[in-house]
Amino acid sequence: MLAELITIGNELLSGKTTDTNAAWLGRKLNLLGIKVTRITSVQDTKQDILEILEETSTRSDLIILSGGLGPTSDDVTKPALCEFFNTGLIFSPEIFSHIESLLEKRNCPVNEYNRRQAEVPESAIILFNDEGTAPGLLFKKESRIYISLPGVPFELKTLFEERVVPELKAYFALPFIHSRTVLTQGSFEANLAELLKDFEAELPPDVSISYLPSPGIIKLHLRTTGNDPMLLGKNIDNQILKLQKIIPEYITGFDDDTLEKVIGKILGRGSYTLSVAESCTGGAIASLITSVPGSSGYFKGGIVAYSNEIKRDQLAIDKFLIDKYGAVSKQVVEDMATNVRLLFNSTYSIAISGIAGPSGGTNEKPVGTIWIAVSGMGSLVSSKFRFGDNRQRNIARASATALNMLRKLMLDKGSDVNYN
Predict the structure, then answer these.
(1) What are phi and psi of 119, to 5 degrees?
(2) pLDDT at residue 231 above 60?
């Protein structure tokens, strides 16, 4: 089964807005067993929308549009759909009542533009939008389905999950899909591919593997399709067991796990606490930790010791150490880890100091040089890393590496790690 995505908006073509909707929809359709063959962005003009609709009608089973359903003059998707499907607009009292209720909660007056949003194509199936004022629209023409969704990401996602997926499952004979994701940290994509070369060669024909890299993290996505969901699950689980034997030192979690979630589970189960002292990451590690609900139960706090003055005054780092070895050094980062743990009276601590870039590097310590230390339960471990010359990637990689160093230390101390 083939699908195409059409994103509508001048702001997408000008680069003022990043199109995240298409990527999200592509992932969701893939999980349903629907293959996306094209993604096209067009201007907010009726002619452009009509032309792309005409093109897609000759080659795809499912066409999903996003954008252009708002109340302003540049939102022309509904008129284009009316022309394409040879239908007219009718006023929906139910939609209008929802719009009035929604705007009343926001203390916004209802005007004529809002009333226009309650006008819907007569031949469309209405997909009610609980999150916003523009409903989704579904059309059936010959053997194809056309779906138009608002461009606001959180509205589009809710509509797709709650309204669109049931319609697709009812209309199309979709295969069973089983997939799992293995979260890894500490290796590069090419290195993982080399380690898994034989594993990939021995994969069953109906099982595929994809590498999904991001700074500091590589996800391995295993996927299979068939008619027996029990058998599919068993086949994927067998491959997961093989991966755990081949690359155990790199696997940090599965499926929706993140390093910060895994660490939170370990800390919570052991009634342990954590503190951080950050320099080059500027609070990124603390932000990751506190993004997990319930983190207040184990995260005591941290210090962003960006300047040497703060390292000396707040973390009691000896000026002699900074002068002799530099702020980016084994000696300083180990003291940061020890002192912040004592200061906050936490079980474990993370400390990090480095040169994120793009400037500040030297021949001895080039941009991307990062020292990380973790402390706790009678142990102090530190390592030096060289990540690269991109500031944001360095911060992301350093944060992920620091969290994984903490995870490994806690496992070495016998802490329980249960991914369920």
Answers:
(1) -90, 125
(2) yes
Judge: domain 2-171, CATH 3.30.70.360.
no
Question: With helix as H, strand as E and coil as C, how does 62-89 read?
Answer: EEEEECCCCCCCCCCHHHHHHHHCCCCE
Nearest to 353 by CA among 370, 334, 373, 331: 370
In the block, which residue shows the tokens 């707040």?
A: 314
pLDDT of residue 106: 86
Q: Are 254 and 182 in contact (CB under 8 A)?
A: yes
CATH 3.30.70.2860 segments of the chain: 176-254
The more confident residue out of 120 and 106 is 120
pLDDT tens digit string along 132-166? Answer: 989 999 999 988 999 999 999 999 999 999 999 99
Distance of CA 27 to the CA centre of its chain: 11
CATH topology of domain 259-412: Maf protein (3.90.950)
C-alpha dist (Å) from residue 2 to 30, 138, 257: 10, 17, 31
The whole-angstrom separation of Cα 149 and Cα 152 is: 9
| Interatomic CA distance for residues 182 and 244, integer angstroms | 9
| Burial group, residue 287, by CB count within 10 angstroms (0-12, 13-18, 19+) | middle
**Which strand (E) or helix (H) includes residue 101?**
helix 93-105
Q: What is the CATH number of domain 176-254?
A: 3.30.70.2860
Identify any residues that bridge with 6 across adjacent strands, giving them in sequence order.
40, 65
Place of tokens 């000008």: 14
Q: Is the peptide bond before 229 cis (omega within 30 degrees of 0)?
A: no
In the chain, CATH 3.40.980.10 covers 2-171
The helix (run of H) or strand (run of E) holding residue 93 is helix 93-105
Buried b / exposed e over 226-243, threshold 16 CB at 10 Å, is eeeeeebeebbeebeeeb
Rounded to whole angstroms, the Cα distance separating 378 from 372 reads 17
> Please, where in the chain does CATH 3.90.950.20 lie?
259-412
Minimal CA–CA distance to 284: which of 261, 304, 314? 304
Contact in structure between 196 and 181 (CB atoms under 8 Å) = no
The two tokens of residue 354 are 């480095």
What is the helix (H) or strand (E) element at residue 226, kind and residue range? strand 217-226
